[in-house]
Design a protein that fits this description.
Elements lengths: L28 E7 L2 E3 L2 E4 L4 E6 L8 E2 L14 E5 L4 E6 L7 E6 L1
Parallel strand pairs: 1-4, 3-8
Antiparallel strand pairs: 1-2, 4-6, 5-7, 7-8
Bound molecules: copper (II) ion.
Length: 109
């Protein structure tokens, strides 16, 4: 079973104020695999507006929870995934809820 959850972070307004300078980039989706009690890649840099999809390949349940509460995928069973579309800026540190030593970061650059 696959669950998909969408979250939206704060939309930045700076880019909208400069329409003539903006280039329309195609948003990408990045996959973070959860396997063997680790996020891979643990540290991921994405472009503004990109989506990150976490896929759990472990038998035990995991989650990705932002340390500051910006997002929480909820527990994902084996084969489950959750997707989050990020805004225009920010840097996020997250961990697995049940296994707090499992850590990762998302940087928008
Ligand atoms: Cu975990």
């Amino acid at each position: 079973m696959t669950t998909r959850r969408q979250f939206l972070t704060r939309a930045a307004t700076a880019a909208a104020a400069l329409p003539l300078l903006a280039t329309v980039a195609r948003a990408e989706t990045h996959v973070v695999t959860i396997k063997n009690m680790a996020f891979s890649p643990a540290d991921l840099t994405i472009a503004p507006g990109d989506t990150v999809t976490w896929v759990n390949e472990d038998r035990m349940r995991h989650s990705a929870e932002d340390l500051n509460g910006a997002f929480d995928t909820g527990l994902l069973g084996r084969g489950d995934s959750a997707s989050l579309t990020f805004g225009n800026s920010g840097s996020f540190s997250y961990r697995c809820g049940p296994h707090r030593n499992m850590r990762g970061t998302i940087t928008i650059a």
